[in-house]
Amino acid sequence: MMDSLVLDIGEGTGALVIHAGPELAEQEIEISPTTADPDAHREHNVVHARRDRDRTAYMAVFPSVAAGDYTVWHRDGSPHAVVTIRGGEVTEHRL
Questions:
Q1: Could you tell me if residue 1 is inside a domain?
Q2: CA-to-CA separations, 7 to 11, 24, 85, in angstroms, rounded
Q3: The whole model's pTM is what?
C-alpha cells in the first residue's frame, strides 16, 4: 500500500508534489514565490521514498501552498522551474 499523505487544500490553497529520482532521497527541495527576493526565506521539504506493492517513488510533498507561481530551486541554488499552484488542486512537477 502506498504511504498515506494528508493534504490541506481548498479555495486559495493547493498542494505541490515534486517527483525526483532515488539520487535525491532524503535531500531537501526548496520553493519560493516567484515574486520573492531570490535570497528570501524558502519553503523546503525532503524527498522521501514512498512505496506501494509494485514500486518505489521518490517525491517531496508540499501539502499546503498558497495559490500562485513558485520557483523550484536546484540544490546549487539556481532556479530549476516555475510551477503554478491553483487553489483546490494538486500540482505535480518532475525534476
A1: no
A2: 13, 22, 13
A3: 0.89
